[in-house]
């Protein structure tokens, strides 16, 4: 069994909020508690983080398939508008297909972008399940992606302008999905892993067990 801990460290002060918490009034449960994954399209996580370029905070919208750790989409923006989140969701639908996403859990924090009517309408229309984290620790897989792309790649690449940031997210997506060996996947890339499991029965695949915060 491959066990994933949903834990993150405390963020530094004086950083912009990437979640405004306006989705808290919606009664969506955290459907990821203790979840056992055996395939792609069972759980995708989304988040918004920030990055300092051109003497101002800019934002990074990301979406990830937790089982294969494939970055479905990552977008750099100078604003926090819902349209950016919608681009990520539409990329998922284009990549996976509507039928493959029926019953897939969409896990987010309480940001208003993911609570927008147009966003939820597309989720419901695709028959995906809406799951919400009560706090950032419960969206640790997305937080992990934020850490990797910003601290391990963008900073190392010396990204200092918005133009460079837009190029960097595209480069990171390519490297992560096609070339980055991931230990949890057997030291192969997400795309190689997805190809590998195509002919492996679900009962014989690696299981990913998510932390249960109710225990």
Output the keywords.
215 residues, five-stranded mixed beta sheet
Characterise this structure:
This protein is α/β, with parallel strands linked by helices. The protein is built from 6 helices and 8 strands. It has helices spanning 82-96, 112-115, 117-125, 140-157, 162-178, 190-196; strands at 2-4, 36-37, 43-53, 56-65, 70-77, 105-108, 129-132, 208-210. The strands form 2 sheets. A 5-stranded mixed β-sheet has the order 5-4-3-6-7, with helices on both faces. A hairpin with a 4-residue loop joins strand 4 and strand 5 (70-77). Helix 1 runs parallel beside helix 3. The longest helix is centred in the C-terminal third of the chain and has 18 residues, at 140-157. The chain is globular, with a radius of gyration of 17 Å.
